[in-house]
Design brief:
This protein has helices at 19-29, 70-80, 92-105, 205-215, 223-228, 259-265, 294-309, and strands spanning 4-7, 10-11, 14-15, 34-39, 56-61, 85-89, 108-113, 115-117, 120-125, 130-135, 140-144, 160-164, 191-195, 218-221, 249-253, 270-275, 288-291. With 310 residues, it is an alpha/beta fold. The mean pLDDT is 92. Bound molecules: flavin-adenine dinucleotide.
């Protein structure tokens, strides 16, 4: 049996909770994985020692993991990882690292997986219009979307072994600009409320932020909103040329439901749409639809949520 290796996802210097979902995905593929933690300080691995269902933890230390150079990440991981099938989260950086690692090892890469049935892997294609299932024989590097698998439990106790690795850094970060907003990122949230051009002006996104604050959601936007208003940053854009999100709940407000927007959010577990046009395409994909202007619907929605959540 080939090794199963899960690469922990890092976010702001700590291990992202979705790492626990990757362990479940590894079990679905058929093995108790080795959990690899890329880090500059091995103590970051302490937080995953209690994850259930892992055979061992390897903290791979290298200065390259301080930056965003995917080729450096891939070379450091390649030198430290045993052979085997590798799973990581389908984030922008990890997908890049996954492709480079697969190329270095001359093995297959399968991106954006949303279902694992033994060695059969399903992922969306054609902007999410169809799913394809591929069968993997031999080793592969697989990226898995967040919020697809349940997290494993926390009743394990694994020792951490530390491996020093050097990476071949091709590019270095000269300056890190702080994100303009400290709000939750759409790709990390369990609930996303997004606004489109139908919001009328960027100032009206404050109404979405108020709902987001009540339910712990991130605020997203359509490309039309991002392109029309400089105040709405590209980091909020959901869709084919923006971010792919897979939350439990996606609320689309004043968004028509163009195919390019659907490409980034149609795999959300529940979709709620608020649009004044009953014929808007978004309603064909929504689990719950409210035909109304956001000016009518959002205050009622906000009041009901506040009453419900105290
Ligand atoms: C190559 C390419 C890539 C693209 N990538 C993306 C992408 O990543 N993400 C993306 O979103 N788009 C993308 N687009 C653009 C996409 O085709 C659409 O133009 C865009 O999604 C439309 O955004 P919208 O729904 O906010 O605006 P509109 O199409 O203008 O729709 C606004 C909606 O708001 C409703 N509305 C108006 N007023 C109100 C009100 N007061 N209350 C409630 N509803 C109201 C209207 O009925 C309408 O349905 C891409 C396009 C191309 C060609």
């Amino acid at each position: 049996m080939t090794n199963m290796i899960v690469i922990a996802e890092l976010s702001k210097g700590s291990i992202h909770p979705s790492t626990a979902e990757l362990v479940t995905a590894a079990h679905a593929f058929g093995g108790e994985p080795i959990l690899v933690v890329p880090c500059t300080d091995a103590s970051v691995a302490d937080s995953v020692q209690s994850l259930s269902g892992i055979s061992k933890i390897i903290a791979v230390k290298s200065d390259v993991f301080d930056g965003n150079d995917s080729s450096g990440w891939a070379s450091a991981l390649d030198s430290a990882l045993p052979s085997g099938t590798v799973l990581c989260l389908a984030t922008t950086r990890s997908k890049d690292v996954a492709a480079r690692l697969a190329a270095r090892r001359n093995i297959s890469v399968v991106q954006d997986v949303i279902r694992i049935d033994g060695t059969n892997l399903t992922s969306p294609i054609y902007s999410g219009k169809a799913n394809q299932t591929v069968s993997v024989s031999g080793e592969a590097v697989i990226t898995v979307r967040a919020n697809v698998f349940d997290s494993v439990g926390n009743d394990g106790s694994c020792d951490v072994s530390i491996v020093d690795a050097s990476g071949d850094v091709k590019t270095a970060v000269q300056e890190v600009m702080q994100r303009a907003s400290t709000r939750l990122d759409v790709s990390e949230a369990n609930i996303v409320i997004s606004g489109g051009r139908g919001m009328g002006s960027p100032a009206n996104f404050a109404h979405l932020e108020a709902v987001a604050d009540t339910i712990g959601a991130a605020v997203g936007a359509s490309r039309a909103a991002v392109d029309t208003w400089g105040e709405i940053p590209h980091s909020m854009q959901v869709g084919q040329t923006g971010k792919t999100v897979n939350p439990n709940l996606y609320i689309a407000v004043g968004i028509s439901g163009a195919i390019q927007h659907l490409a980034g959010m149609r795999s959300s577990k529940y979709i709620v749409a608020i649009n004044k046009d009953a014929d808007a395409a978004i309603f064909q994909h929504a689990d719950y639809g409210i035909v109304a202007t956001w000016e009518e619907a959002l205050p009622v929605f906000q009041e009901a949520l506040s009453a419900m959540l105290g």
